[in-house]
Amino acid sequence: MRHLKGYSIQSRQFANVFRESFKRFDKKWENVSVKFGPVTLMEGWLKVEYSNSQDEIVALANNRIEIEQLIDDTLTHFK
Fold first, then answer.
1. What is the pLDDT of residues 49-72, one digit of tens each?
2. pTM of this prediction?
3. pLDDT tens for residues 12-40?
4. Under the phi-then-psi rule, with left for phi > 0, alpha for psi from -120 to 50, and beta for the rest, what region is 31?
């Protein structure tokens, strides 16, 4: 990230800004943690029951779509 043209990014600050924005969504992300170094913004797991896997995958994808703008919004802090 340090090599992105037009940006002055420090990894730890970037992670902190992202994680602060993510807080408003974290209730929808069961078993997700942001307590990592700056390389891993968030990490978690999801137990998926085979009989209900399609619905769970769709719900997870919808959650992902809901937060996809967070990276772009975070990048604007470092332009």
1. 888 899 999 999 999 999 999 999
2. 0.83
3. 999 999 999 999 999 999 899 999 999 99
4. left
- The answer to whether the beta carbons of residues 46 and 30 sit under 8 Å apart is yes
How far apart are the C-alpha atoms of 25 and 19, rounded to whole Å? Answer: 10
Per the CB < 8 A criterion, the answer to whether 70 and 29 are in contact is no
Contacts of the segment 58-66: beta carbons below 8 A, 24+ positions apart:
63/25, 63/28, 63/29, 66/25, 66/28
Eight-class DSSP state of 3: T
